[in-house]
Write a structure and sequence with these properties.
Layout (H helix, E strand, L loop, with lengths): L5 E5 L5 E6 H7 L3 E9 L5 E6 L10 E2 L2 E3 L7 H13 L6 E11 L5 E12 L11 E7 L1 H10 L6 H12 L2 H7 L9
Length: 187
């Protein structure tokens, strides 16, 4: 894989307007397209990952199952499926939940400014994490996760906390867990 990775630059309507090298986009805080994936098991536990300690930002922090950026001419769903395999070594049918825009300083003088497409899936498969991307992974109940976020919010990535709050404000995660008829479950 090349060291040069680009992101898809977008306007506020999520329309593509160009491409930029990934690190440069984060230095400039350029608005770009991204995705976040939340995988639950059949008991409703969320699979978290701890970002590898040598990641360019937010290293060593707990976050959602997987996240990333599409490359040029790649659909957001295909990009999400690709990164889920690259980071967590797993496949799982994904369903789109929502998208939102955020801008946040993430350390190392970098700024995340993304339109983040959030996907959900249900799987009982054990992940096979890529240790260049993931320092650790674990499953956690939503109740225990809420307690951890309340007690130690700095242990979690900024985007994860925003998505978590947004999803629970609309009870989206609870509904997806309860109503699995829309998802193909992988075991």
């Amino acid at each position: 894989m090349s060291n040069f990775q680009s992101v898809v630059l977008v306007d506020e309507n999520d329309s593509e307007i160009g491409h930029m090298e990934k690190i440069q986009a984060h230095v400039e805080g350029a608005l770009h397209r991204a995705f976040s994936i939340f995988i639950f098991d059949l008991n409703g536990n969320l699979l978290l990952q701890k970002r590898a300690f040598d990641k360019y930002h937010s290293s060593g922090l707990w976050t959602n199952t997987c996240c990333g950026h599409p490359i040029a001419k790649e659909s957001i769903l295909k990009a999400a499926q690709r990164r889920l395999m690259e980071e967590m070594g797993m496949e799982c049918p994904l369903i789109f939940g929502f998208k939102f825009t955020y801008k946040s300083e993430v350390g190392n003088n970098l700024i995340e400014h993304e339109i983040d497409h959030v996907f959900f899936g249900i799987s009982n498969k054990n992940p096979q994490p890529n240790n260049e991307e993931v320092a650790a992974c674990r499953s956690i109940s939503l109740k225990d996760l809420q307690n951890e976020i309340n007690l130690n919010p700095k242990s979690f990535t900024e985007w994860f906390k925003m998505i978590y709050e947004k999803a629970f404000n609309f009870h989206l995660l609870e509904e997806l867990i309860k109503d699995t008829k829309y998802l193909m479950i992988t075991e």
